[in-house]
Design brief:
The chain has 222 residues and is mainly alpha-helical. It contains 9 helices and no strands.
């Protein structure tokens, strides 16, 4: 196998998919071999390969060293395998998007048990939004139990309530307005900056804007 790490991304991906039978723990050698092993293991375990391809492509686009890309790919695979196990009992199964946000939630600090509870208790069309919101709330410092309760409460109140939760990435982006919602979106400040005077403009001294020039200060004449 060609181990030239300077090849373009499509060529690298093609090389990753050509050599079967390698497991991540058994590979010693190039970073490319480690990436190949991760992809092959994902195929064997039913993990959508696109979830790893995107990680590899992102690293290459940013010029990240190949060994770091390989490490990130291995970590991503480990998270996806955990998420797959935690979400295995979700009604109707999980798709690639749900699995990806599940791995993100685990990385943010959500426990496997909480991810299982939310995956089982959320309808398929809202599951990705619910898990993404849970991951965001935990990542910004909300106690995981409180974050889960907020998401479950929003699920019970309907899709609009869930879409209004910060971090519901599958819905409107955080910080954008939601139809039917009153007030500014979460995280968006309204009004003028501090110290900026508001109200009608003050005309310049000597007369209103657009009028004839005013006389000298003090109204003095000849």
């Amino acid at each position: 196998m060609n181990t030239n790490l300077d090849r373009s991304w499509p060529a690298v991906l093609a090389g990753l998919l050509l050599v079967p039978g390698l497991l991540a723990g058994q590979v010693e050698g190039s970073a490319e071999a480690r990436m190949q092993a991760a992809v092959e293991q994902a195929l064997e375990r039913g993990i959508p390969v696109a979830l790893l391809e995107s990680k590899i492509a992102e690293g290459m686009a940013k010029g990240v060293p190949a060994d770091r890309i390989a490490l990130a790919t291995e970590h991503r695979l480990a998270g996806l395998l955990r998420a797959q196990a935690a979400m295995s009992e979700a009604p109707g199964g999980v798709d690639a998007t749900q699995l990806g946000v599940g791995a993100d939630a685990l990385a943010a600090g959500v426990s496997d048990a909480m991810l299982t509870e939310l995956a089982v208790g959320s309808p398929g069309e809202q599951r990705a939004m619910a898990v993404a919101a849970l991951a965001y709330l935990v990542e910004v410092g909300t106690v995981p139990e409180h974050a889960l309760a907020r998401v479950q409460d929003a699920l019970a109140r309907g899709p609009a309530a869930l879409a209004n939760l910060p971090g519901a990435a599958a819905g409107p982006p955080f910080g954008t307005a939601v139809p039917g919602r009153r007030g500014p979106p979460d995280g968006v400040r309204t009004g003028p900056p501090p110290g900026v005077r508001t109200g009608p403009p003050v005309p310049p001294r000597g007369g209103p804007p657009g009028g004839p020039p005013g006389g000298p200060p003090g109204g003095g004449g000849g």
